[in-house]
Amino acid sequence: MNVTDLKIALIGVSHWHVPLYLPGLPQGTVVGISDDDAALAASMAAPFGAKVYTDYRQLLKECQPDFVFAFAPHYRMRELALDLIAAGVGFTIEKPAGLNAHEVAEIYDRAEQKKAFCAIPFVWRYSDTVTDLKEKYLKDPIVHMSYKFVAGPPSRYLATSRWMLERKLAGGGCMTNLGVHFIDMALNLTDCTTAEVLGSIYQYASPYDIETYATSLLRLSNGTSLVLETGYAYPMSENLKRENRWTIVTTQGYNILAENNLELRHYDEPTRNISLNTDSDPYYEIFARVTLNDFVSGIRPRASLKEMLATSIILDQMNALADAQNKTKW
């Protein structure tokens, strides 16, 4: 089968990431679109001439897609993923794939039993930026990493995804939504699969019960230290959507990536500045294209439920330590 022969469905198109995927879908392949919001689903389906549903199970039964791009509130992801595995379709599902590592482990185990194809959009794994870092510029052992990713305020979710502001529905706030990319990033760059969480402090600077600023300190299994800083705090503008800054220390120098520039400061060498993209948005299209090609070729995804589970286990530890630190009762 060729990618252009696939029957593709989109489930949960009210998710804010969906428009970023659409350019990566081959023309004429989308056969069905589902969302609780019928009007939104219809507007999304119109350019594709796709059938519209509010019940994704009906979509699966009637359209019988080969591949699904799945989106859902975090508390509904487990059920959706298990239904897709039972239907025998290939799929990708937005992170975090469930409310906690227990749910992700259940999905992973079921997928392994059924030999299901599931890709997770840890999109930095699909980027030239991280490929170049790993293969060209970080040739010496990494001793420390620091990732700072601060996005817009929580009010941006009120229009379409209010559930993001309730912990029981989302699992957590900025660290759950943003931090997972950089937990996975750290594991990817160091070829580690586990980490010890040494400390987490979460701030709750809004009326909602999710963290809006979060900092964690970890030690990866190879000894590399890692600081993660995420937030819903950045005053967004048309040109500036977020702050994204990476610092990676190796045995031979100090490297900073920010504002589309990689600054390499190695001992006894001139400083080098290299243009590298720091905006993750373009990589969703690439993720969609690569994932569909991997599916029809029988290739394991670069980021699968295995990588999602490793990240979820670490995230759960971070959340638990932050709860203890803040003496918060839920």
Automatic annotation (TrEMBL):
Residues 151-253 form the GFO/IDH/MocA-like oxidoreductase domain. It comes from Candidatus Anaerobiospirillum merdipullorum. One of its GO terms (molecular function) is nucleotide binding. Residues 7-118 form the Gfo/Idh/MocA-like oxidoreductase N-terminal domain. This is Gfo/Idh/MocA family oxidoreductase. Pfam families: GFO_IDH_MocA (PF01408), GFO_IDH_MocA_C3 (PF22725).
